[in-house]
From TrEMBL:
Organism (species): marine metagenome
Name assigned to this protein: TauD/TfdA-like domain-containing protein
TauD/TfdA-like domain boundaries: 3-270
Alphabetic keyword roster: Dioxygenase, Iron, Metal-binding, Oxidoreductase
Single Gene Ontology BP annotation: sulfur compound metabolic process
SUPFAM superfamilies: Clavaminate synthase-like
UniProt cross-references to InterPro entries, sorted A to Z: AtsK-like, TauD-like_sf, TauD/TfdA-like
One Pfam family hit: TauD
Coiled-coil features, chain-numbered ranges: none
GO terms under cellular component: cytoplasm
Sequence similarity: Belongs to the TfdA dioxygenase family.
């Protein structure tokens, strides 16, 4: 395999001359070590098959869920583009910087993400290095946040952005992934990476209501941290070509989608690698607290991010 580190960001490498579906254990080990070190691996023109994407992701751990579409193309082929459309709202929510599944009892370990249909412009995916952000924080802020904990909720993030789903149950709950009626996950603002032992900021759009802090002050602090953290050289945006795939470490990086003309079709495929309860479990959840498996996929197959 050929590896080129991204020079404009504090993380990330481009890997070529590799077939992700046929790598042997020695190549995988090399790739795993590179992933731990670089957090984001970009594989241009990988053209993963459906089974191949999940099988590759499974080498890094159990799956939180297998390959699912992130797309504005409905099951009937309709391209969803209107602002009040359910699919559009779900996709728009992803345009805020976030860490996947921090609103779940166990946050995700990582993801494999690939491009099948890309629009003519826009729609880059961005990542931001929360390890570097923590390391670059001024000492006063670092001390201020050292022992703080915040709640993480998809109700909060989608609601704040005006993107809550329309269809509710009679009691105001939803039968959608991430909108489970369970205790809201509580997480420290600083997370230690289970493999590297390095600390990073655990923030993003789902974080709200720091314990013991006035809500407005909490929102202001979290907004300031997010705004500051997600700036160059800690960010990288990938402009997709059909067939590209990436693998990222969700324990270190935030990510986001970026806007595009939603009258154009786009279809991405996302396989989410489950976190390890020993290091990714929320402070207020028990390892046995897993959501029931009866939640439905979004009507179009879109999942929460
Ligand atoms: Fe996401």
């Amino acid at each position: 395999m050929k590896v080129e580190h991204l020079t404009e960001a504090t993380f990330g490498s481009v890997v070529t001359d590799i077939d992700l579906e046929t790598i042997d254990d020695a190549e995988w080990r090399e790739l795993y070590d590179l992933w731990i070190e670089r957090a984001l691996l970009v594989f241009p023109g990988a053209f993963l098959s459906a089974e191949g994407q999940d099988a590759f992701a499974r080498r890094f751990g159990d799956l939180e869920f297998s390959r699912a579409a992130l797309s504005n193309i409905g099951k009937d082929g309709k391209v969803h583009h209107q602002n009040d459309d359910e699919v559009v709202k779900s996709l728009r929510g992803n345009e805020g910087w976030h860490i996947d599944s921090t609103y779940m009892p166990v946050q995700a370990k990582g993801a494999v993400f690939s491009a099948e249909i890309v629009p003519s412009s826009g729609a880059a995916t961005g990542w931001a290095d929360m390890r570097s952000a923590y390391e670059e924080l001024d000492s006063k802020t670092r001390e201020r946040i050292a022992d703080l904990e915040a709640y993480h909720s998809l109700y909060y993030s989608q609601g704040r952005a005006g993107n809550l789903p329309d269809e509710q149950n009679e009691d105001g709950t939803y039968n959608l992934y991430g909108y489970h009626d369970m205790e809201v996950s509580l997480r420290p603002l600083i997370k230690t990476h289970p493999i590297t032992g390095r600390p990073s900021l655990l923030i993003g759009r789902h974080a709200h209501d720091i314990v013991g802090m006035d809500p407005a002050e909490s929102e202001s602090l979290l907004d300031d941290l997010n705004d500051w953290a997600c700036q160059p050289p800690r960010t990288y945006h990938h402009q997709w070509d059909v067939g590209d795939a990436v693998l990222w470490d969700n324990r270190r990086l935030q990510h986001r989608g970026t806007p595009f003309d939603m009258t154009e079709p786009r279809r991405m495929w996302h396989t989410r690698i489950a976190g390890d309860p020993s290091s990714e479990l929320a402070l207020n959840h028990h390892p046995d607290t897993v959501p029931s498996d009866d939640v439905e996929r979004h009507p179009t197959g879109t999942w929460a991010c």
